[in-house]
């Protein structure tokens, strides 16, 4: 059977559907760039939902209260860091634009503030972040005010323990207690946050859970739940549950597979096409070639081959997990274009002796080196192609996990890249 | 008489087989055990199994348990696990492998019987309806419509018309049990001036041989249907409102590396095209009570085949029919949608408790929309969602697209209203 090859022609092709790729598509859409977006599931599903800008400096030190001040330090100490490719004012604008977009699509976030927020992790430790989903924000307030609070978990739910949260937080949050409930309709076996969240989108489950929460809360008026308050329109689920129970309710992130990432993915996959983006979901591109008149991307979905022709490309393919980088005994490669990868001199230098070495491991700073326009560089230090830009954690010279800057790098470099694409296409 | 001993199920080396099944660049070793597959799988937990467990057990060499677990008949092979997997691991391939490994006398009898019936006549009908009976029923219903509906006194339902553009297939359920349900589609084809035909051979739109894991039978049915289209020299095989019949032929052609001289298309694509071209002048003026509708994306034509384009066409058709404000999408939807639990032969497998447990997630999705009606272009989805409404006490109805198209056009005959609820029936009075 002859398979028809489908063609997509666009101004900008974004490769990668993690936070950076999605953010790039959002920024491009807001600037009326005709955009195609494609990528595999990637690591977005593993997020807590918090959008970190910069929570710690590489090499240790205390958690950062003022990320904007820290950006200036970073400019002085690590000018190669991707967050130093644009001004703090532009980074602020990028966060504002991205969170406003999410809010307008039904997923509300706190806007970027002047200081980091202190938020709860799935195990009840604390971390710093810039923007907080509104379903989680009341937790930060309750923590600050040290309000009496009950943390609830559920039989059969792995990856979230109310007792663990209480044990870790008890010292700094005196009137904190834990309780375990049977989730309505899920009496047996292992249950997943995603399934609970879907169920809470029905009125019947909300009413049932509200009743259980009211009973177990006693005199306490604030309740922390694992992040299960619906996938779609979670703010409404939370509001209705609060109304039904008379309690103040907030979410705490859970271990993957977790709801906040699924929320982001499903929301963006629905809203972007409605706003004009051509989305080809769950697919990796096979080849990327720079021809005279266009950049050509070849891929295939279940139905057959697809060709995208674009005037510019943003590569947001992530690091090892998503396949943006690949490691073998000879070193680290960028598999799509074989772009030079900034990396330790030899495999022996990838890791330090101690797993918990405070300086981190050199391999975690590997990635693509770019110019100020976020264009990847050749070995000679020239842009690989004036139409190729790069965003997200594939960028070198940052250790996003240790410095809590994953969303910061993704959103800032996506913003920078899209600005540069606009300039290129406007020329 | 001595009791018959069931044939033992051979033990498969899953890890070894898995490695051979993998596409380029994929790896089961790449599984991070993150659990997104199980979290997003309505079959997770049934028979104490889930996709993550399945893949881990395969990697650990627990071949006996995997070879014999009845869970493989509860997994509908909808491929949602692969869709959400960051490593794109396709567990449904292993499930199909396990199904094919079960001796016939151990497989769910309903699926095996359906496959046997498909092969029992030239119709390829899973209900065993022979060609001559199909021809009789079609002509009988056609005569009645011509006699009782003056606007359609000249309605056509051609059979074995050489050189027709469209070869239209037909789910057996209609000619067998509700023949009047064939009429709305005939009217639509008449209205748009389609050059179409049924075939007395290979007309049926079911293929449970694929679900039975009977590769040879699947191949036979595929061949027979291709021959039927080729014999009539049709350009387009137009698949009716059915998910798996499309997938079984389309995927069969690819899987068995067959050459065909016609295109495979879905009725949904054409509904959308005919509406856009003005040939089907539907509108939503009739929906003056703002009755709400949602739509079910069949896995077999959306996630597993066409992807987003057909999902978009489906939404265009629904919005045109009921009004944009009266359409509420299920969450999740399109390629991320959940299987209803009627696919993969589950409806035929006789495992009702497990099937309804699986379907609870679909039921919740529908309930969350608050819609009074679910539209779906798939007979298995249709039957399953109706059954779920009964089992879980829902108050929604499930309708075919053809019913609503004819309703919108004011040409839905009295005998063609089986699936309408009282609110829609009231509008027609």
Itemize the secondary structure elements and their pairings:
The complex is a heterodimer of chains A (427) and B (429).
Chain A: E1 6-15, H1 19-30, E2 35-39, H2 67-77, H3 88-104, E3 117-120, E4 126-129, H4 137-145, E5 149-154, H5 162-169, E6 176-181, H6 193-199, H7 203-217, E7 222-226, H8 234-245, E8 248-252, H9 259-274, E9 278-281, E10 287-290, E11 295-301, E12 304-315, E13 326-328, E14 331-333, E15 341-342, E16 367-368, E17 388-390, H10 406-426
Parallel strand pairs in A: 1-2, 1-12, 2-9, 5-6, 5-7, 7-8, 12-17
Antiparallel strand pairs in A: 3-4, 10-11, 11-12, 13-14, 15-16
Helix pairs in contact in A: 1-10, 3-10, 7-8
Chain B: H1 14-21, H2 36-39, H3 51-59, H4 63-68, H5 80-84, H6 92-101, H7 109-118, H8 131-148, E1 166-168, H9 173-177, H10 183-191, E2 196-197, H11 208-211, H12 215-232, E3 236-239, H13 244-255, E4 263-266, H14 267-276, E5 293-295, H15 302-306, H16 308-322, H17 352-369, E6 373-375, H18 379-391, E7 397-399, H19 401-409, H20 422-428
Parallel strand pairs in B: 1-2, 1-3, 3-4, 5-6, 6-7
Helix pairs in contact in B: 10-19, 12-13, 14-16, 17-18
What this model shows, in words?
Chain A: It holds the Pfam family FAD_binding_2. Chain A: InterPro entries: FAD-dep_OxRdtase_2_FAD-bd, FAD/NAD-bd_sf, G3P_DH_GlpB_su. Chain A: Keywords: Flavoprotein, FMN, Oxidoreductase. Chain A: One of its GO terms (molecular function) is glycerol-3-phosphate dehydrogenase (quinone) activity. The complex is a heterodimer of chains A (427) and B (429). In chain A, strands 1, 2, 9, 10, 11, 12 and 17 form a 7-stranded mixed beta sheet that branches. In chain A, strands 6-5-7-8 form a 4-stranded parallel beta sheet, with helices on both faces. Chain A folds into 2 domains: 218 residues, 3-Layer(bba) Sandwich (FAD/NAD(P)-binding domain), CATH 3.50.50; 116 residues, Rossmann fold. Chain A is an alpha/beta fold. Helix content of chain A is 30%, strand content 20%. Chain B has 3 domains: 88 residues, no CATH class; 156 residues, Rossmann fold; 149 residues, Rossmann fold (3-Layer(aba) Sandwich). Helices cover 45% and strands 5% of the residues of chain B. In chain B, the strands form 2 sheets. Chain B has a 4-stranded parallel beta sheet with strand order 2-1-3-4. The chains are: A alpha/beta (427), B mainly alpha (429). Chains A and B meet through helix 6, helix 7, helix 9 and strand 9 of A and helix 2, helix 15 and helix 17 of B.
């Amino acid at each position: 059977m002859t398979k028809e090859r489908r063609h997509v022609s666009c101004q900008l092709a974004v490769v990668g559907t993690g936070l950076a790729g999605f953010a790039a598509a959002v920024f491009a859409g807001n600037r009326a760039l005709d955009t195609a977006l494609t990528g595999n599931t990637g690591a977005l599903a593993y997020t807590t939902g918090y959008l970190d800008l910069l929570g710690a400096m590489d090499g240790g030190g205390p958690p950062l209260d003022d990320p904007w001040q820290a950006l200036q330090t970073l400019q002085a100490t690590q000018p190669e860091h991707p967050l130093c490719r644009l001004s703090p004012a532009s980074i602020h604008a990028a966060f504002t634009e991205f969170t406003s977009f999410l809010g307008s699509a039904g997923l509300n976030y706190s806007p970027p503030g002047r200081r980091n927020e202190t938020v709860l992790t799935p195990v009840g430790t604390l971390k710093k972040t810039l923007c907080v989903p509104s379903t989680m924000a009341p937790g930060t307030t309750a923590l600050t005010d040290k309000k009496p609070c009950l943390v609830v978990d559920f039989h059969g739910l792995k990856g979230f323990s109310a007792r663990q949260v209480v044990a870790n937080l008890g010292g700094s949050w005196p009137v904190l207690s834990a309780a375990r409930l049977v989730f309505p309709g899920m009496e047996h076996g292992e249950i997943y946050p995603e399934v609970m969240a879907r169920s809470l989108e029905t009125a019947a489950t909300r009413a049932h859970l509200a009743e259980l929460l009211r009973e177990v809360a006693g005199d306490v008026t604030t309740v922390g739940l694992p992040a299960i308050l619906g996938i779609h329109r979670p703010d409404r689920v939370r509001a209705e549950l609060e109304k039904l129970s008379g309690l103040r309710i907030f979410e705490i992130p859970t271990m993957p597979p977790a709801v906040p990432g699924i929320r982001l993915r499903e929301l963006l996959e629905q809203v972007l096409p409605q706003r004009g983006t051509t989305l080809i979901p769950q697919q990796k591109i096979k080849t990327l070639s720079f021809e005279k008149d266009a950049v050509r991307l070849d891929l295939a979905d279940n139905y057959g081959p697809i060709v995208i022709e674009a005037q510019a490309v943003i590569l947001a393919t992530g690091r090892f997990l998503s396949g943006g980088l690949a490691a073998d005994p000879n070193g680290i490669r960028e598999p799509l274009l074989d772009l030079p990868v900034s990396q330790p001199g030899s495999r022996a230098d990838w890791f330090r002796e101690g797993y918990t070495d405070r300086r981190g491991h050199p391999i975690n700073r590997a990635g693509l080196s770019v110019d100020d326009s976020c264009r990847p560089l050749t070995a000679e230090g020239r842009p690989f192609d004036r139409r190729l830009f790069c965003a997200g954690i594939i960028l070198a010279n940052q250790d996003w996990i240790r410095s809590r800057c994953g969303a910061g790098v993704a959103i800032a470099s996506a913003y920078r890249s899209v600005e540069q694409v606009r300039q290129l296409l406007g020329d | 008489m001595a009791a018959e001993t069931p044939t033992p199920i051979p033990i498969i080396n899953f890890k070894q087989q898995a490695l051979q099944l993998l596409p380029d660049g994929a790896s089961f070793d790449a599984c991070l055990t993150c659990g997104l597959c199980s979290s997003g799988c309505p079959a997770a937990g049934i028979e104490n199994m889930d996709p993550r467990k399945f893949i881990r057990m395969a990697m650990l060499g627990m071949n006996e348990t995997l070879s014999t677990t009845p869970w493989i008949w509860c997994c509908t092979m909808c491929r949602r696990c692969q869709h959400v997997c960051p490593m794109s691991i396709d567990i449904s391939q292993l499930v199909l492998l396990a199904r094919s490994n079960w001796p016939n006398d151990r497989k769910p009898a309903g699926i095996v019987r359906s496959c046997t019936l498909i092969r029992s006549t030239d119709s390829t009908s899973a209900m065993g309806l022979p060609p001559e009976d199909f021809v009789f029923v079609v002509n009988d219903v056609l005569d009645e419509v011509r006699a009782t509906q003056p606007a359609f006194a000249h309605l056509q339902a051609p059979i074995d018309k050489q050189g027709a553009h469209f070869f239209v297939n037909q789910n057996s359920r209609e000619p067998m049990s509700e023949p009047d349900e064939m009429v709305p589609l005939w009217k639509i084809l008449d209205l748009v001036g389609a050059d179409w035909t049924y075939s007395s051979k290979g007309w049926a739109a079911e293929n449970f041989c694929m679900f039975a894991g009977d590769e040879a039978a699947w191949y036979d049915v595929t061949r027979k249907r291709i021959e039927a289209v080729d014999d009539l020299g049709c350009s387009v095989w137009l698949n009716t409102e059915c998910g798996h019949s499309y997938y079984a032929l389309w995927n069969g052609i690819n899987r068995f590396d067959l050459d065909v001289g016609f295109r495979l298309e879905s009725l949904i694509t054409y509904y959308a095209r005919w509406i856009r071209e003005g040939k089907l002048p539907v509108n939503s003026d009739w929906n003056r009570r703002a009755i709400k509708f949602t739509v079910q994306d069949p896995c077999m034509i959306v996630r597993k085949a066409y992807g987003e384009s057909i999902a978009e066409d489906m939404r265009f058709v629904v919005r045109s029919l009921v009004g944009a404000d009266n359409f509420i999408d299920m969450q999740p939807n399109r390629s991320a949608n959940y299987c209803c639990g009627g696919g993969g032969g589950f409806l035929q497998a006789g495992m009702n408790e497990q099937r309804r447990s699986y379907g609870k997630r679909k039921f919740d999705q529908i309930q969350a929309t608050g819609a009074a009606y679910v539209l779906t272009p798939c007979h298995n989805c249709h039957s399953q969602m109706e059954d779920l409404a009964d089992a879980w006490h829902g108050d929604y109805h499930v309708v075919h697209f053809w019913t609503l198209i004819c309703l919108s056009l004011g040409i839905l005959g009295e005998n063609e209203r089986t699936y309408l609820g009282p609110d829609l029936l009231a509008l027609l009075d």
